[in-house]
């Protein structure tokens, strides 16, 4: 494709060289430049791409897009100056891949908790309905039945457009995508045309990045502010910040709720560890998913599928056939009768939701043992809150490591301990080694007791000092209970 075609409908400030230059691809990471590539210099959170323009040219870039021209302009290289490189990148990526988001139904899910679950549930529902779709989530990317490993919650805008273009080629009509606050702030969804945006909830998270809750809220809201009038915005009517998301959007406004009146209303009728009996918009159905938070996730998925024109009873039949999302309230039972729940809960709200769901189901004759930690180099403020929640709502809590990264695991645990209330001092212990912590939980548990291992869920690694080591909670649990039962 020629530079002239890639820059269709994109304003420029100055050009040095010819726009007839052929472009083989678009990159913003100079390390990925290949012969004939267009390199765009973007000012990032950590580094400024303008510092790597010379490297990009040396590696074969034929076109350079930037906000400031380098002092020396090389012959036979086209330099194009723009006002905002990050914003321009989205338009370039869309043009290069044929504006794929305009040619399928793109659905974005944002919120603190539930993004992965709702996007994955929608993908599963539409597969059950016989409709081909794509999934862009934290866990994986899917195009039809093809699985591609995921790298970020919201991948970069070039990768997104490439995935959507491939989805179109494979005959997909729909694409379900997680939209993270980082992705919104770093313009990783720039110029994408969303048909529907869904909001799950918003609670304390990522304040290491956004600094204040108000800033975090504004970033989430900006996703809805940018929606066109042709889109639909669906928000959680039970969340006090749900209506804020809709304040300035041009999109058609819809709500879902379990507690208040809404366009899509749900009721939890029965629940146990095998599943739930629910009522959505007057229709009863059974699902193998369980827990109030899953009822909310299913209700949003139901609302979105309905807005996409699917018949309500067929959606509910499809939901009834779905299996649980990996690492989300995933249940296991040992030969000795100990009940294990593995869940991704890594925020105060998510941990509280899971514990509340377990406590509402259990008979109280069983003990609830919770194994959890908090990630290193991340939002420190939530640590003490999670310590308070876990020890308040569990029989015993074992504080351990969860991706300590470059921090001292012991220091992270000490910060979790600060939130433990005096009356709960006797209800917890600390074991920094996560495998040993799980081993202690199994050793302490008796038949019918419940062990919640929280924080990692679908993750299959433990990150320590920049190195990712194999660690899958589910495999570790199974390995330990088999070893200890001999």
UniProtKB/TrEMBL annotation:
Modification comment: Carboxylation is probably crucial for Mg(2+) binding and, consequently, for the gamma-phosphate positioning of ATP.
Residues binding meso-2,6-diaminopimelate, per UniProt: 378, 402-405, 455, 459
Domain (Mur ligase N-terminal catalytic) ranges: 22-97
Catalysed reaction equations from the record: UDP-N-acetyl-alpha-D-muramoyl-L-alanyl-D-glutamate + meso-2,6-diaminopimelate + ATP = UDP-N-acetyl-alpha-D-muramoyl-L-alanyl-gamma-D-glutamyl-meso-2,6-diaminopimelate + ADP + phosphate + H(+)
Cellular component GO terms, alphabetical: cytoplasm
Top class in the EC scheme: ligase
Pfam families: Mur_ligase, Mur_ligase_C, Mur_ligase_M
Recorded metabolic or biological pathway in which this protein acts: Cell wall biogenesis; peptidoglycan biosynthesis
UniProt cofactor(s): Mg(2+)
This protein's record includes keyword rRNA-binding: no
EC number(s) reported in the record: 6.3.2.13
UniProt keyword list: ATP-binding, Cell cycle, Cell division, Cell shape, Cell wall biogenesis/degradation, Cytoplasm, Ligase, Magnesium, Nucleotide-binding, Peptidoglycan synthesis
Residue span(s) of domain Mur ligase central: 109-305
UniProt-annotated location(s): Cytoplasm
Binding positions (ATP): 111-117
InterPro entries reported in the protein's UniProt record: Mur-like_cat_sf (IPR036565), Mur_ligase_C (IPR004101), Mur_ligase_C_dom_sf (IPR036615), Mur_ligase_cen (IPR013221), Mur_ligase_N (IPR000713), MurE/MurF_N (IPR035911), UDP-N-AcMur-Glu-dNH2Pim_ligase (IPR005761)
Superkingdom: Bacteria
Residues annotated as transmembrane: none
GO terms, molecular function: ATP binding; magnesium ion binding; UDP-N-acetylmuramoylalanyl-D-glutamate-2,6-diaminopimelate ligase activity
Chief place where the protein resides: cytoplasm
Functional summary from the UniProt entry: Catalyzes the addition of meso-diaminopimelic acid to the nucleotide precursor UDP-N-acetylmuramoyl-L-alanyl-D-glutamate (UMAG) in the biosynthesis of bacterial cell-wall peptidoglycan.
Family: Belongs to the MurCDEF family. MurE subfamily.
PANTHER family linked to this entry: MUR LIGASE FAMILY MEMBER, UDP-N-ACETYLMURAMOYL-L-ALANYL-D-GLUTAMATE--2,6-DIAMINOPIMELATE LIGASE MURE HOMOLOG, CHLOROPLASTIC
Protein name, per record: UDP-N-acetylmuramoyl-L-alanyl-D-glutamate--2,6-diaminopimelate ligase
């Amino acid at each position: 494709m020629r530079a002239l075609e890639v820059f269709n409908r994109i304003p420029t400030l100055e050009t040095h060289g010819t726009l007839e230059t052929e472009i083989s691809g678009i990159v913003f990471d100079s390390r990925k430049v290949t012969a004939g590539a267009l390199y765009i210099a973007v000012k990032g959170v950590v580094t400024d791409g303008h510092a790597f323009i010379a490297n990009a040219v040396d590696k074969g870039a034929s076109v350079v897009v930037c906000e400031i021209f380098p002092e020396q302009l090389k012959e036979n290289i086209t330099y194009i100056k723009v006002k905002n490189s990050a914003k321009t990148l989205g338009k370039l990526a869309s043009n290069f891949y044929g504006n794929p988001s305009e040619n399928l139904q793109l659905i974005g899910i944002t919120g603190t908790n539930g993004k992965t679950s709702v996007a994955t549930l929608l993908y599963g529902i539409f597969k059950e309905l016989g409709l081909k779709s794509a999934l862009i989530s934290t866990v994986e990317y899917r195009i039809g039945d093809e699985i591609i490993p995921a790298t970020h919650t919201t991948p970069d805008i070039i990768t997104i457009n490439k995935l959507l273009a491939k989805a179109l080629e494979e005959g997909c009509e729909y694409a379900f995508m997680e939209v993270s606050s980082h992705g919104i702030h770093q313009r990783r969804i720039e110029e994408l045309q969303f048909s529907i945006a869904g909001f799950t909830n918003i609670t304390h998270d990522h304040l290491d990045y956004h600094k204040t809750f108000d800033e975090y809220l504004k970033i989430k809201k900006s996703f809805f502010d940018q929606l066109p009038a042709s889109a639909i915005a669906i928000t959680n009517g039970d969340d006090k910040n749900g209506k804020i998301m809709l304040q300035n959007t041009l999109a058609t406004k819809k709500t879902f709720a379990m507690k208040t009146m809404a366009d899509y209303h749900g009721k939890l009728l029965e629940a146990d560890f095998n599943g739930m009996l629910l009522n959505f918009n007057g229709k009863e159905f059974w699902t193998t998913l369980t827990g109030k938070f899953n009822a909310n996730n299913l209700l949003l998925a139901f609302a979105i599928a309905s807005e996409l024109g699917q018949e309500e009873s067929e959606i509910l039949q499809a939901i009834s056939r779905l299996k649980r999302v990996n690492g989300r309230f995933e249940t296991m039972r040992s030969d000795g009768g100990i009940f294990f729940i593995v869940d991704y809960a890594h925020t105060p709200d998510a941990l509280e939701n899971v514990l509340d769901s377990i406590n509402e189901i259990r008979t109280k004759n069983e003990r609830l043992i919770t194994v959890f930690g908090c990630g290193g180099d991340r939002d420190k403020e939530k640590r003490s809150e999670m310590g308070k929640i876990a020890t308040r709502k569990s029989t015993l809590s074992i504080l351990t490591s969860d991706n300590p990264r470059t921090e001292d695991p012991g220091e992270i645990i000490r910060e979790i301990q600060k939130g433990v209330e005096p009356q709960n001092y006797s209800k917890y212990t600390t074991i920094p080694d996560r495998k040993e912590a799980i081993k202690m939980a199994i050793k302490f548990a008796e038949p019918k007791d419940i062990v919640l291992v929280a924080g990692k869920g679908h993750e299959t690694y433990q990150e320590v000092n920049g190195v990712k080591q194999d660690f899958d909670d589910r495999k570790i649990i199974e390995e330990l209970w088999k070893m200890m039962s001999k």
